[in-house]
Amino acid sequence: MGNPPPPHSSDPQAPFRAIFLGTPALAAHVLERLIGDGAGLVRIIAVVTRPDQPRGRGLKYEPSEVAAVADHFQLPLLKPTRIRTAEFPAQLRAFAPDLLIVVAYGRILPAEVLQAARLMPINLHASLLPRHRGASPIEAAILAGDATTGVTVMRMTERMDAGPILLQRELDLAPDETQRTLKDRLADLGARAMLEALDLLRCGRLTERPQDESRATYVKPIKKEDARIDWRADAASIERMVRAYDPWPVARTSIDGTDLMLWKAQLSDATNPPAPACPPGTITALRPMLTVQCGIGTLALLEVQLGGRRRISGADFARGRRLAPGSRLGT
User: Fold this and answer.
1) Model confidence band, residue 275 (pLDDT cutoffs 50, 70, 90)
2) Residue 290: strand, helix, or coil
């Protein structure tokens, strides 16, 4: 781990000493921006991330994206398997941090950890709180059909995503927004918002306001089984599902007992969806696009993939599989 740097300078213009806690790519982007663009505002004195996890087909243990950034910049790095211990808060206090900066760390931090910061623990959450509190706010915004989303910088409390708001910035969702594209956009917006909040804090102009509990909504962690399509749902909901689960866990159905992943889809009757003429999941057309009946409306499958195969157009899949109208998906 290395020896902690000396305590914070008495100079009010000296950079804040901060411990960064985070895990995935979004958090890694914010960390890189704090190290680079935020050099005059904040000094990252240590990094905390989740332990290495098995990844890929070989399930080899690999470090998180945040760990890779910490290693690149040769920062002290902690990967605790347990955080509700006496040792972990003591490790953090030994660095004498002014701030804890938390971005998608993946664990709820107990009071003993939050109190390790001299000034405050700050969290960046990828939604406009109090909407979409919880582990999957980016997917939730797409699934819900939200027109706007954004990021919230807040002072952390023990309650999940319930601390007072320090700063919020928003953006509009594109009609074809996917989880992948939205994460990239929110990572950039979040880094800028965090830098802005730190600048306001140093100037003594960072104020907080409580969240409106009556407007709070909650989202759960995404599991692979959540991506299984129920064709009884309306076509618009399924189309949002395809975008929300790209690149993981990927919306999926089945054909003849084999998994079929859906990467791109579009509403084929967006303005005036007809009443179902056949059971949901039935293929209604092959040309010009492979089209499937939903509970309300129909959905064109633009890009699909069988397990272990490459991604191809829905039309090519239908030709290669010799599908016919009346064939069923999801049975």
Assistant:
1) low
2) strand
CB 266 within 8 A of CB 299: yes
The answer to whether residue 112 scores a pLDDT higher than 80 is: yes
C-alpha–C-alpha distance, residues 205 and 27, integer Å:
25
User: Of 222, 306, 325, 318, nearest to 262 (Cα)?
Assistant: 306
pLDDT digits (tens, 9 = 90+) for 219-234: 999 999 999 999 999 9
Which H or E element spans position 319?
helix 314-321
The overall average pLDDT reported for the chain is 93
Task: Tell me the CATH class for 16-219.
Answer: alpha beta
CATH number (3.40.50.300, 3.10.520.10, 3.40.50.720, 3.10.25.10) of 224-321 reads 3.10.25.10
Which amino acid is located at 267 in the chain? L
> For the chain, first and last CA: distance in Å?
54
Q: Which helix (H) or strand (E) holds 88?
A: helix 87-94
Q: Provide the residue type at 261 as one letter.
A: M
Q: Cα-atom radius of gyration of the chain, to the nearest Å?
A: 23
| Cis status, amide bond into 130, omega within 30 of 0 | yes
Q: pTM score, two decimals? A: 0.93
Amino acid symbol at 298: T
Residue 8 has pLDDT above 60, yes or no: no
pLDDT of residue 10 exceeding 60, the answer is no
Cα–Cα distance between 172 and 55 in angstroms, integer? 33
Q: Secondary structure of 145-188 in the HEC alphabet? A: CCCEEEEEEEECCCCCCCCCEEEEEEEECCCCCCHHHHHHHHHH
